[in-house]
Automatic annotation (TrEMBL), chains A, B, C:
SUPFAM superfamilies: Trimeric LpxA-like enzymes (SSF51161). Keywords: Repeat, Transferase. The keyword Glycoprotein does not apply. CDD domains: LbH_WxcM_N_like. InterPro entries: Hexapep, Hexapep_transf_CS, Trans_hexapeptide_repeat, Trimer_LpxA-like_sf. Gene3D superfamilies: Hexapeptide repeat proteins. This is Transferase hexapeptide (Six repeat-containing protein).
Length: 226, 226, 226
């Protein structure tokens, strides 16, 4: 059974599976589905028509992850929009904001006060630091790291598989250092390192590692500051 | 209480909050949520699993808007797809089409007969003229203006913050004049003006204002007609 | 009436319209809507908050299709994620995987074991072969063909209307031959043919047909192998 404190406000047709834990003063919308084992902290707000705590799929054509955790944890003060999907095995820290129609896979950690924009996708095994902004429709591929204070513009695209499924390969997403800013609709290739406080122009295609404090733009992107 | 005329056809598990107004011959799907104060005109069609009339979030890390209206208005003859989210403080005019999984924020006005494509996003404070087409997965950033008859291709990306969150800044989206056409996956920078009936090629990155009746393409985009 | 075998496991608040056919050992989540006439094969898994079997809209400003089939068919062993929308008149073959928040239009055929990624969109009249991978947030425009074993990277964009709505025109999507691989966020123009096992680099804009076994990249894309 799931126990729901009296201070929690729940909409109509919302479904709680078993072993869900809910803190004080939580607000949950209508028609939302909270799946087995999900843990929701105090003062969390969740919209309508969400699906939270999804067990990862295991398919012959999709890779497996070793999960450290087996449930979804949403910490205190976090706000989740409407029509959002989030997987089990992921931890959303305190005072995070997740926009409507966003999707977050398993084995992800999102640091305090970060923002995951509307319709953005964060794939499995990724780590998002504190105070990061991931804008609308941006795509954080699997096995990506964003350090603290990173800004990912709208519609930014990343990949983590340089052989595009053709060979067995250790998948590797970008590694984006503290305070870097990626302009809208830029494309980042697998395993790319973007240096601290580096700025990547809108629409750039980044094919190589970039050092700290650079400003780059173009296809392929080049230093435009020196 | 919300009053629902007898001519309205409503699916199962649909939730109406209080003070919802619904016209004649409206059709609403299953599991849809119509939030407080929403006004729906005659002959409107709404799909299943939508969330309509969302109150804007106010977060320390997100900017506030001064809203002129405090409810969602959907005018007569408009059709809303499935799994759509639309905010309060927005007006969707007559005979508009909003595709499945699209999302429209607060303080937006969409003119008669315009199309907002499947999975497209329209951010806050934007004005869309009459007979515009916003294609699938296109992103209309906040504070954007589309005059009448504008065509935004699939996956077009825009931004409205040239400092990418680094400084306080008056956010400014693109201003796209009557009849302009933006090719698929083009990127538009903050505050860019695109002239009347100008054509922007697919995949272009537009970094400067463009005059009327131009044809531009490339990264950064250049005139390819003269 | 719809008949549901005893071996089927259905969540709460799930809606079945009339004439739905469901095979053995099917699992369906909560708050999902299965519309009139949908056929679901054995061992299919469907998530929560989906809308399946949507009747195509007919609007003055949207084109009509001649549909060969009038219902949605999902064949055995296929797995559909959460918050997915799929139209009537489409056939999803065996052991296909459709990610969360994906959307598939009418008159589409998807071959055995293919993957349609999270938040990807497949528009009307498109044919996807066997063992294809369509990655997250990729956009398959209408009237597109993917032969077998094609890889479409994340955020790839396509278009099918070279006049962007300005003239009557036979819409034509890309034709992508067996084993071709399209890098993330590449843009493909209307009617482009991509040759067998050709590789298109990330962020490329493909403006002309490309032969078999090529490697191309850039804006506009050029052969980078010879």
């Amino acid at each position: 059974m799931s126990t729901i404190p009296e201070s929690v406000k729940v909409g109509q047709n919302t479904v709680f599976e078993k072993n869900v834990t809910i803190g004080e003063n939580v607000v949950i919308g209508h028609n939302t589905v909270i799946l087995e084992g999900t843990e929701i902290g105090d003062n969390v707000t969740i919209g309508s028509n969400c699906v939270l705590g999804i067990k990862p799929n295991v398919s012959a054509r999709m890779r497996k992850t070793e999960q450290k955790k087996d449930k979804l944890i949403i910490e205190s003060g976090t706000r989740i929009g409407h029509l959002v999907s989030i997987y089990a095995g992921t931890q959303i820290s305190q005072n995070v904001f997740v926009g409507d129609q966003a999707s977050i896979r398993e084995n992800v950690r999102i640091g305090n006060t970060s923002v995951v924009g509307r319709s953005a996708v964060v794939e499995l095994n990724s780590t998002i630091g504190r105070a990061c902004t991931i804008q609308t429709l941006a795509y954080i591929t699997g096995d990506t790291t964003l350090e603290d204070d990173v800004f990912i513009g709208p519609c930014v695209s990343m990949s983590n598989d340089k052989y595009m499924g053709a060979k067995p390969y250790e998948l590797e997403g970008p590694f984006i250092k503290k305070g870097a800013k990626i302009g809208n609709n830029a494309s980042l290739l697998p395993g790319i390192i973007i240096g601290q406080e580096t700025i990547v122009g809108a629409g750039s295609v980044v094919t190589k590692d970039v050092g700290d404090y650079k400003v780059i733009a173009g296809v392929p992107s080049k230093d435009i500051h020196s």
